[in-house]
Design brief:
By secondary structure, this protein is α+β, with helices and mostly antiparallel strands. It has 5 helices and 7 strands; from the N terminus they run βββββββααααα. The protein has 2 domains: 93 residues, Thrombin, subunit H (Beta Barrel), CATH 2.40.10; 71 residues, no CATH class. It has a 6-stranded antiparallel barrel with strand order 1-2-3-7-5-4.
């Protein structure tokens, strides 16, 4: 008899990162879930959802993933220790997962209020000129300490520029603290002109 014939349940793994891995064959038992896959990473705190043929859904929290390598005829897989979450616990656990989304104004709302903050650099020129500032600092004949300090100033400028309401006065003061060079002054003037 094959081990696969014992895997009569279908589960999905909802990772803490927001990744959802579906259609995994498993054997769900009291306090344990067995799967014969080694191509996925299951960690403590991940959620397991089991959808049953009667339409009901159970949610489990992984306490110990219990990964085992292949041994003779037994394939590699997981023998997880899990905790069955009641409906209120399951809903709370699913809502506490953090989704990391990138791109302009992307959002994920899954039965929740949108409390996200998007940072969107509207002007690509601004980012390009910040990179140009770094390139100009590298070209100057500065001591390693002066170069490091200059890069720290540019990082502070970038933080200010990317903030929700950048201060022109702060950016101008930071720009003035950079070593003097004509190219740095002209790049700085352009950056200031882009701030609204």
């Amino acid at each position: 008899m094959s081990f696969d014939s014992l895997l009569t349940d279908t589960i999905s793994v909802l990772k803490k990162t927001g990744e959802n891995i579906e259609s995994i064959k498993a054997s769900v038992q009291k306090g344990k879930i067995f799967i014969q896959r080694s191509d996925i990473l299951i960690e403590s705190g991940d959620l397991i959802r089991r959808t049953m043929s009667n339409g009901a859904t159970e949610t489990y929290e992984v306490i110990d993933p219990g990964f085992h390598e292949q041994f003779h005829g037994i394939p590699a897989g997981y023998q997880m220790n899990v905790k069955n979450l009641g409906l209120p616990e399951a809903e709370k656990a699913v809502q506490s997962i953090t989704y990391n989304i990138s791109g302009t104004n992307n959002r994920v709302n899954q039965n929740s209020t949108d409390n996200s903050v998007n940072i969107n650099v509207q002007n690509q020129d601004l980012q390009e000129h910040l990179e140009a500032l770094k390139a100009e600092i590298t070209k100057l004949d500065l001591s390693p300490e002066q170069e490091k300090e200059s890069f720290e100033v540019i990082d502070a400028i970038e933080s200010q520029v990317l903030s929700e309401s950048p201060s022109k006065v702060v950016v101008k003061t930071l720009l003035n603290s950079l070593p003097y060079a004509g190219s740095i002054a002209s790049i700085g003037s352009f950056i200031l002109s882009l701030l609204v």
